[in-house]
Amino acid sequence: MLDYEVIIIGAGLAGLTAAIHLSQNSVSVLVLEKSPLPRHKVCGEYISNEVRPYFKSLGIDFGKEYPSISKFRLQTTSGRSTSCELPLGGFGISRYAIDNGLYVKSLENGVKFRFENVEDVVFNNNSFLVETKSGRFHSKYVLGCFGKRSTMDKKFNRPFIQRKSPWLGIKGHYYSKEFPHDLVALGTFKGGYGGLSMVEDNKVNFCYLVSYESFKEIGDIMGFNEKIVSKNPMLRAFLEHSELTEDFIKPISISQISFEKKRAVENHMLMCGDSAGLIHPLCGNGMAMAITSAKLASEILIAGLKGSIDRDNLEKTYSIKWKNEFSKRLAFGRNFQNLFLKPFLLESGLGILRTNQKLLPYLISKTHGKPMVV
Ligand SMILES: Cc1cc2nc3c(=O)[nH]c(=O)nc-3n(C[C@H](O)[C@H](O)[C@H](O)COP(=O)(O)OP(=O)(O)OC[C@H]3O[C@@H](n4cnc5c(N)ncnc54)[C@H](O)[C@@H]3O)c2cc1C
C-alpha cells in the first residue's frame, strides 16, 4: 500500500517547484526536508527571466517588488572592465523570499511536508521505502532534490562525494546607497570572483566563490574581504560604502562545493537541481536549471503515473532530456570559470570582448536556456 505517489527529498528550488507542479496535476506528494524553511542560503540570487512563463503557468507570481536586472558588468583586479545588456535579463530575489513563496504555494496546493532528515531510500518491488529517524514512507516515485552535497550522496556512494572539493561560497546582504537596481556586477580577485546585485527591500547581495587555497591565506571572511577581495576596485568601493543588513551578523558560508559531473538518475530516483549537476555560479543560471529540471521530472512522472511510460523508459528518457537541456550550458560554464581564474587569460579575453560588443551577450546566452515553454 503506497502512502504517496511521489516523495520529494529536499525543499529547495527544485523540490518545491516539483511539489507545486505535481500537486497541481492531482498527484499526492510528500516533501521531506531536513532544515526549517525559509532560511538564507549561499546564492547570488540573480534569477534568469527564462523561468517566468513557467512560474506564471504554475500560478507563481513574484510581482513587481523584485528588482528587474538587465545590465551586466565585469571588472578584473587591474580595474579594466566591460559591460553589456543581458540578452534575456532576470530579477533579484533572496532565497529566503523565493523559497518561502514556493513553500506557501505548495501548502495551498495540499502538499504534505515533514521536516526530517532522510536517512535511507530503498527501491524494491517497483516502489520506494523512504526512511527518516521517526518514519517510513512508501511511494511509487522519488525525486532526489537534495542539493549540492547531502548525506544521501554518501549513502549512494556517488563518485563526486569521495573527493574533497576546493571551493567555498560566501554571501551577505548589504545596504548600499549607490548600487544600481538593474545591474549584476562581477568582479574577480585572487582565487575567486564575486557578484553584486539587488534583491528585495533595497538590499544588495554580495556573494562570492573562492578556492580554499586562496581563502586559507587569510582564514576569516572579514579579513579576506579587506585584504584580497578589496584588491578589485569595484568590490573595494562596494565594501567601503555598504554595511551588512540586520539579518546577517556576518556573511554565511558553505564549503566543499563540487562542480563534478553527476548522474541524472540514481537508485531509480530522478535527480533535480544541484543533485543532478551544478553550473558554475558566474553563469547565474543554477536556479533556473533547478526549476527547469523540476519541470522535466514532473512531466515525466505524471506520464509514468498515468501508465503512458514504464519505469525503465521513464528513467532513460529523463536522463536524455536532462543531458540535452543542460550539458552544453554546463560545459560553457566550466570553460568560463577556467578562464576567469587565470588572470593573464582573462585580461586578454577582456581586450577581445571590449572590441567586439556582440561577443559578451552571445557568450552569456550560451550559459542560459530559452524562456521555458509551457
Ligand atoms: C556561490 C554560489 C552563487 C550562486 N549564485 C547563483 C545565482 O546568482 N543565480 C542562480 O541562478 N544560481 C546561483 N547559484 C546556484 C543555485 O544556488 C543553485 O543551483 C540552487 O540553489 C539549486 O537549488 P536546489 O533546489 O537544487 O538545492 P537547494 O536549494 O540547496 O535545496 C536542497 C535541499 O535539500 C535538503 N536536503 C539535503 N539533504 C537532505 C536529506 N538527507 N533529507 C532531507 N532534506 C535534505 C537541504 O536542506 C536543502 O534545503 C549559486 C551557487 C553558488 C554556490
From TrEMBL:
Pfam annotation, one family: DAO
UniProt domain FAD dependent oxidoreductase: residue ranges: 6-38
InterPro entries: FAD-dep_OxRdtase, FAD/NAD-bd_sf, Geranylgeranyl_reductase
Name of the protein this chain belongs to: NAD(P)/FAD-dependent oxidoreductase
